[in-house]
Amino acid sequence: MHSKPTLSLWLLAFVGLPLAGATAKPESVGLSPERLSRIRETMQRHIDAHDISGAVTLVAREGQIAWFHAQGMMNIEADKPMEKDAIFRVFSMSKPICGVAILMLLEEGKVRLNDPVSKFIPEYKGTKVAVIQNSAANAAASDPPKYYTIPAAREITVQDLLTHVSGLASGGQVSSHELEGLIDLVGGRTLADIMPKFAAAPLDFQPGSRWTYSPLAGFDTLGRVVEVASGMSFDQFLKQRIFTPLGMKTTGFHPGDDRWPSVVTAYHRADATLTKTKNPNRLQSKTYFSGAGGLVSTAEEYGQFALMLCSGGQWNGKRLLSPKTVELMSSVFVPDTLPGRAPGRGYGLSVEVISDPAAAGRRVSKGSFGWDGAYGTHFWVDPKEKVVGVMMIQTDNPDRQVDRDFENAVMQAIVE
Fold first, then answer.
1. Is residue 157 a contact partner of residue 221, using CB atoms and an 8 Å limit?
2. Which of 61, 119, 397, 408 is most buried per CB count within 10 Å?
C-alpha cells in the first residue's frame, strides 16, 4: 500500500521536481520545531495587542512546507476563527504575479523590457511631466495644484513600470489631483477603458530619475500590456498560464459570489483598537483586472507561487519561467542609491530585493526578494537558504513591523 507513494517521491527527487503541497518535518529541512513555534507566539502577541485580528503563516524550505498555521479570528464580530484556507485580499502582492506574466511574454519575445509602453498602448505616446508652480507653503491643502508641463525626456518603458521609476501616478500632487476618485470608478470598467485616463495624467517626475511607488496605474498598465501582447484578457492569461499550472484554484480577481464568507474581514487599527475597514472590496472586480492590487488568494496558494520562484521558475512539474529569468527578476535594477530607495533595499522587476541586510535592518539573506500588500500580507523568497515565507493578515500595516517580526521568527528557526 505504501510502495506507490514511496516510488513517486523517489522519482520526483530523482528528476528534481518538488511535490506540490508536500510537507516535511521541520528538522528534515534544517528547521528547529521548537524555534518555529515562535512564529505562533509572535503572531499571538500582535493579536493580543489588537494589531491584527488573526493570521495564516506558512514557511517552506527545500521545496517542502515545514510550517502552516492559522490563529486568531477571520471575523471578530461573528466570532469566526481563522482558517488555513481563508481567502485574503493580497492587494500589492498582485504585482509580482503581474510581473511574472510580463516575464513570460519576455521569454516568448512578445515584450521587451526596453519597449516603450506606447508600443502596446498608443495613448502613452508623447507623455508630459508636471512641474509644480505653487509651493506647499503658500497653498491650502484643498487647492488644486498649479502646474505646467514639459515633454518627458524619453518615453516610459515596460522596465520603468516594473521598477516604479516611471513617474506614472506615483503619488505626486498633480497626478493625485488629475486621477482623484478613479479607484472608486474602476469596478464596472475594463483596463482598456481606464488607460486613456492614466496616460493623460502628467508624470510626477522624469522617467528613471527616482524611485517612487506607483500604487495602481503602473501595474494596471502592465496588465493591459499583457492583454495586448498575448491577445488574451488579463484574468484569463493569469488563470491559464499561472494559476492552473500551480494549482491556485481560489486565486483570482473576484472570489466568486458564493465565496465571500471565506474572505477575511478587513480591519483598520488605531489606538489598540480594530475597526472594520470601509469599502475594502473596491478592487475585487469581474471586469477590471487590477494587476496592481486586485487579486485574492490563500496562504497556501500564494505559497505555491513563491515556491515556483524559489525553485527557479518550476513547480509541480510545470515550468513557468527559466532559472535565468527568475534570476533577472530578482536582480537589483534600482539600487538603494537612487533617490526614493531606502538603504540596503534595491528593487528588481516587480519585487524588492535586499542588497544589504544590515543596512536594510532585515533578518533575511542578501538577495532575498518579495513584496507585501496594503492590508498586511507579506511574502519573501530567500534563494540562499531556499526558504519561502508567507504571512496573510487583513489589517492595514503601515509600519510593516508585523512583517519584520515574522521574518525574524522564521530566520531564527534555521539551524542547519
1. no
2. 61
DSSP 8-state assignment for residue 97: H
Q: Which domains does the chain have, with CATH numbers?
A: 18-99+233-411 (3.40.710.10), 112-229 (no CATH)
Cα 359 from Cα 338, distance rounded (Å): 15
Per-residue exposure over 6-22, b if at least 16 CB sit within 10 Å of its own CB, e if not = eeeeeebeeeebbbbee
d(CA 328, CA 323): 9
Contact 379, 388 (CB under 8 A): yes
Task: Quote the pLDDT of residue 59.
Answer: 98
HSE, side-chain direction, 13 A CA sphere, residue 52: 31
- Output phi, psi for 414, to 5 deg: -80, 120
Q: Is the pLDDT of residue 10 over 50?
A: no
CA dist., res. 383 & res. 356, Å (int): 15
Helices (H), 49-115: 94-107
Contact 297, 97 (CB under 8 A): no
Closest among 77, 51, 96, 56 to 348, alpha carbons compared: 96
Helix (H) or strand (E) holding 329: helix 323-329
Q: What is the pLDDT of residue 197?
A: 95
The residues facing 131 across adjacent strands are 148
Helix 94-107 vs helix 299-310: angle between axes, to the nearest 10 degrees? 40
Please, what's the b/e burial string for 27-53 (b: 16 or more CB within 10 A of its CB; e: otherwise)? eebbbeeebbebbeebbeebbeebbbb
Residue pLDDT, tens place only, 121-154: 999 999 999 999 966 555 556 688 999 999 999 9
Any residues with CB less than 8 A from the CB of 261 and at least 6 apart, and which?
none
Where helices occur in 94-239 by DSSP H, the ranges are: 94-107, 158-163, 173-178, 191-200, 217-230, 234-238
pLDDT recorded at residue 7 = 35
What three-state secondary structure class fits 160? helix
CA distance 321 to 100: 8
Distance, C-alpha 348 to centroid of its chain? 13
Supply the DSSP symbol for 186: G
Host H or E run for residue 88: strand 88-89
Distance CA 70, CA 299 (A): 10
Q: Where in 142-281 does DSSP place strands (E)?
A: 147-151, 267-270, 273-276
Reported as a pLDDT band with limits 50, 70 and 90, residue 3 is very low
